[in-house]
Amino acid sequence: MRVFIAGIDGYLGWPLAQYLTARGHDVAGVDTLFRRQWVEEVGSHSAIPVFSIEERLAAFCERYGKDLLFRQGDLLDYPFLRDFLAEFRPDALVHLGEMPSAPYSMIDQDHAAFTQHNNVIGSLNLLWAMREVCPQAHLVKLGTMGEYGTPNLDIPEGFFEVEYRGRKDYLPFPRQAGSFYHWSKVHDSNNTMFACKIWGLRATDIMQGVVFGTQIDEMGDDPRLRSRLDFDQCFGTAINRFCCQAVIDHPLTLYGRGGQTRGFLPMRDSMQCLTLAVENPPEAGEYRVFNQFEECYNVEELANMVQEVGQSIGLDVEIHHYENPRQEMEEHYFNPDRQHLIDLGYQPTHDVKAEMRIMLQDLIPHKARILEKHGILIPDIRWDGTRHRSEIIDEQVAPIEVG
Ligand code: NAD
Ligand code: USQ
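Above: the input record for the complex with nicotinamide-adenine-dinucleotide. Below: its predicted structure, written as tokens.
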């Protein structure tokens, strides 16, 4: 298949280009290279060195024996996007090209407005461009499990049957996102659902959990083919941050009580699931939702796992509770479905600790790079729009109830 990836230079986009190419697909992609700038803006760099796009493309050609058709450009530049799609004529589009950080979207008015404008209008442009030049193609749109929030109910895959005042309907499950970033994804989901309804586009909206990991097998040993791995408060996600902290003997930064539960999945499972979605398109006019994660854990369980794995390879790992810079529930019910991908053949990895061990071993050689930026590890972006660094609050934290 001919697969177009928006956001191909990103944490997920770069490995996905390789995973799909290794399976015989023809890949093209676009990226503004914004992610490189955002991480610099928040005072950090990737723990794993990121090569220039030219070096990445040269390595890609050497390993896979064909060029990757790449254009640097913005989804907000509609004529550029439309013309690129008209030239490539994709069978499928994987849309990863958005600003992905909740804390970054909460910094101030400017960052909130940037996030929503970039994400919502970029996605809207992609829908219009598909309608104009490739209406038969399949959009695999990356949403997030965070669109649902943490309701005190089981979470279905996008839709559920409701009975209200004696009548029944099959409706979108309520969204209760927890940041301006997560709300941008809700707005995208609504627009995508609407475009399928009125124009007959076909789309899979993937509610993806938090991804972790440093590699997929396809990357081999060439450092130019590796993906980035961030550890700052904005672009470093929980397990990725914990592993970087473990490597430099910095306490793992558990926010608040640590009972916040999310769906998590290793990068290799994320690639497997996105590929399954690409290779099994829905009917024209169908908008379907997949929940995509491997298992649900609370962040304390994850920190304990990183500690255990770290200790098994000689790292001395401490864990501390820090004031939670976010406004979120710190202990709650969380039980989402994830049957659709299993039905398509998804085989979860299930060995989170093995993945953590690989990560730690990959990160140890880059200890000096992480140490160089260790000052940015304590969060200071608050959900109320102020900024101050979180203090350790171990004494004030009540234990999480088990069961
Ligand atoms: P990323 O920032 O590494 O990748 C996004 C890429 O898109 C970046 O390279 C960025 O430069 C590019 N981009 C952003 N805006 C663009 C625009 N207007 N035009 C062209 N390119 C643009 O993020 P990621 O972690 O790879 O996430 C990719 C997608 O997956 C995002 O939509 C994110 O919301 C979603 N997601 C990620 C995770 C995770 O844990 N990483 C989990 C759930 C969902
Ligand atoms: N957390 C800590 N300590 C840290 C970092 C995070 O306790 O050092 C906690 C947070 O408070 C939160 C949980 O871990 O409760 C997850 O935080 P995160 O930063 O790993 O993930 P999140 O902000 O939700 O965002 C990430 C990606 C985003 C994606 C989302 C999937 O950045 O692109 O949409 O995961 S989900 O969480 O399912 O919505």
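Notes for the reader.
The domain at 2-214+264-295 is CATH 3.40.50.720 (Rossmann fold).
The first helix runs from residue 13 to 22.
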